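Re-running Glycogen synthase to confirm reproducibility after the cluster update. Everything else is unchanged from the original entry.
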Amino acid sequence: MTMQLLSVASEIYPLVKTGGLADVVGALPAALASQGVAARTLVPGYPSVLARLGKTKAVRRYDSLFGEKAALLAAKLDGLDLLVLDAPAFFARDGGPYGGPDGTDWPDNWRRFAALSRVGADIAEGAIKDWRPDIVHVHDWQAALTAAYMRFGPAHAVPKLVTIHNLAFQGRFAADIFPALGLPPEAWGVDGVEYYGGVGYLKAGLVSADAITTVSPSYAQEIRSPDHGMGLDGLINGRIDRLHGILNGVDTDIWNPAEDPLIPRRFSGRSLGARAGNRRALEEAFGLDQDDAPLFIIVSRLTWQKGMDLMIDAIDHLVGLGGKLALLGSGDRALEGAFLAAADRHRGRIAARIGYDEPLSHLMQGGGDAILIPSRFEPCGLTQLYGLRYGCLPVVARVGGLADTVIDANDAAVNAGAATGIVFAPNDPLALHGAIARTARLHRDRPIWQAMQRAAMRADVSWTSSAARYAALYRDLLAEAA
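Result of re-run:
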């Protein structure tokens, strides 16, 4: 019998994306289908989402959802079975999913995502005629309150799972919003939504969930420590029997160098020579010198978490070793300015594009030699998985999902033909400089480099095994609830 799953998230690829969350939420339903799980995904009705929908059906209407009119629309698109919360007062805005055009968060995010979560719980309670989920899977703080609404409501017996994609983002708000959330008085407390005197959406989800997952095994262990627990390590350690680390995968149909329509030259592990055409196109797109020097890429949010301040410090070192760098990303304004200044200082060797461009990111993976990911912490990371898939060897810090997915090119791994990238620790300027130098040396040895590329491209970065683990966890939770 097919298991019915409700997934609740604030992003889903290809409709709306600010990071890896959208990729995961968009790819997981198809992977779960092969495991006997039928997933419907509830997402906000942002303008970009509504614009892509074709035929829709209103399956529930609200005269007053946190004081606003709203409708729950059902639609199918690109193989996704969608439930879209059409609430113009909350989501019909210019800017991004979480903030305005100026980059600042919307002041009513607490209400916008409480509304999404309230609807998620309503669906679990049977709000849609002829369909009710067997299990509810919510993602990050924006959807985590769903678990609390379920726990303190009629759907308390429905199994609920919360996935942490990044513990640094917790959805913390002032205590004075609590009366407006519509939760019972007993929900206010250390065992409910209260968090350091305010309301914590992610905290509420974690304490209410029947299972907690993170997006890599290493990150599941790291968040148990004060260094990575972001104030929630005590709660997490108290629920260690409910914690599971399940590695993310990628959509191997979208990220497939042998069939990718977004790169000029398609290739496989047996036709690595074709990558040269993509490299030249990449150099031309960024205005970089056309030579055989190692071409590093960065596709990232430009933040402290991602170690981008360390990269600023390493740029002169990279150029001194003869390397080149193409960067695509946005984030901290000071870091954006520093990368642009470095590009002006090293014209032809360093180039930066501020923003995000999905087709360009495919070209960068298909033409770059190595992708730099010096993150201070990384729950899973997807860009290193894309790099593996495209033979753009990851140069990564030994943290979280980066440590779980990249095999360092030490002598033993190189000799065994198992190396798929360069891993460094500790995450400091000296170690990063050493990793870049080691990458440049390996790049000069073409047989070794190409052997590493082929090993990387053979790595299983699909959802197959991870989807099986999620399905097994769902079944365990259902058996527990029976």
